[in-house]
Amino acid sequence: MYNTTKSGAQMLSTAAPSVLRNALAVAVLAGLPACSVATITIGGVETGVSGPELTPDSNLVDFGSVAAGMGGTAQVLTLTNTGDESVQILGFSVDDPTAPFTIQNVGSTDLAPGEATEVVLGFTPSIPGSYGANLRVASNDPAGVDEIVLVGESADGGLALSPSSYDFGTVTLGCTADASVNLQNAGGSSLTVTDVSIVGAEGELYVTPEAALPWTLAAGESRAVTVSYTPTLQHVVFGTLTATSTSTTTPVVTGTYFGSGQSLSTASDSFTTPDGILDLVVFVDKTQSMQDAGYVNRFRAEMITLYEALVAEHVDFQLAVITDDDGCVNGPKNFITSADNWVQASTALSVMFDSTYYGGELAEQGFSVLYAATKSDATDERGCNAGLVRGTGGLSLLGISDEDEQSDGTSGEWVAAFTSLKPDPSRVAVYAMSGDLPGGCESAAAGTIWSTVAQLTGGAMYSICDSDTQWGANLADLVDSSAGLRSSYGLSADPDAGTIVVKVDGAPSYDWTYDAASRSVVFTEGAGLTWNQTITVDYTIAQNCAD
């Protein structure tokens, strides 16, 4: 007989639990319907039956006595195909969904003749009492499988801990994962929790009660503790949490908690310093407005700054200034180099510049003139600028104009044209000295198109409206940007700054600092960087534990 208690589950009534279990077992075994198998052998297999036949190893599963609220227990039921055709198991159910019986795991559900499968059944009572229910098995066995009786008892639980086992999974070193563990008085009278601790995890697992101990818990009352896992090593740890109380039933309850530490991710960034080879070609708009604003004479006075800056950077350079529509360099020299002294360079630049007013058709079409000066048929051995653009190194193009660029074609088309001038497109950059964005200044219109192409090629835009002093500084900055040995190298990820290791050509370097704002390694003046060096930066990636 079953009756319904305050738990809502079917519980066996007032008879002694052991007597009830024996009575149920006798009733079940005595009431087995006739089967189509010739012989039923518990623990053995008979396969002489025609068709699929699913046979349990027992029609009674007894979970014994379990303390209420203590996490329960499990039993294994074995089902065997004792027929001569395949059995397909379609599902399992417990006839009373309020009973504390669960189907925890099912093995294979497709059994050939003679094959067996295991079903793990759980019993997790939270309230003291005696429980019973029937397990139903659905299959293609035409005779069906008899209901399997499930029985179990639950004593006064006292202090219960849940969950009694928890896997933190994989946690990154230095990060913390938390699990909330509930301690409940599952008994009928109050108790006091006197201590909660965890051991066996090398300090990586630790417990934090929600309030200071001791706790006095009334019947049914619960409190929580937080179990935390902060791995410091790449290994697996196990810890046992122990809660001690004044319960006479369960004075000590334990739980097992475990996790695995995962090493931090690392990164390695590599950089190569420039080869020190640069071709620099300058276009100057020499229209009347440029003359009237004084920009033509200003550049004439400052253009030697380009030469001086290139020499100071120890660059293998070729420098030319273009003013004519055809893109050809004025004068006998197609370019000046580091082999030219200051007087020779100054004289050659003056001839190239030819400051006489010029108002050709392409005077404000700097892209067209620069491309005409640097394309292959102008720079090959038969061109007017023979040798100006070399097959190696970088190419920087500078346009100086008080008007925005007026060449036909889109910005993207001009970027494609310019970057085709060198084998490595990334070594081509356009620079501009034009009117400020967005509105220009009194003597110059905004250089919007110049600025766009400069940005797309990794160059820079400078203001033509700046003072005389700033003009020279801007030209020097252009050289440093396009040909200089940069001191700052941006990293691909946020590093743990204390783990950064820098090497130059394989040798450790210590002449640097880390700038967190720009996420860059910045070399000091004493680093001694030079051309064609390989810089490697190895580091541990800083962890965002919220991810």
Short key terms for the protein model shown above:
547 residues; elongated; disordered N terminus; 33 strands; 17% helix; single chain; alpha+beta; 5-stranded mixed β-sheet; 6-stranded mixed β-sheet
Major sheet characteristics: 6 strands, mixed
Share of residues in strands: 35-45%
**Count, helices:** 10
* Quaternary structure state of the chains depicted: single chain
Mean pLDDT over the residues: 85
Short description:
This protein has about 550 residues and is α+β, with helices and mostly antiparallel strands.
Describe the structure.
The protein is of the alpha+beta class and 547 residues long. Helices cover 17% and strands 37% of the residues. The chain has a six-stranded mixed β-sheet with strand order 24-23-22-25-26-27, sandwiched between helices. The longest helix is centred in the C-terminal third of the chain and has 16 residues, at 468-483. It is elongated and about 110 Å long. The chain starts with a strand and ends in a 7-residue tail after the last strand. Residues 1-48 have low confidence and may be disordered.
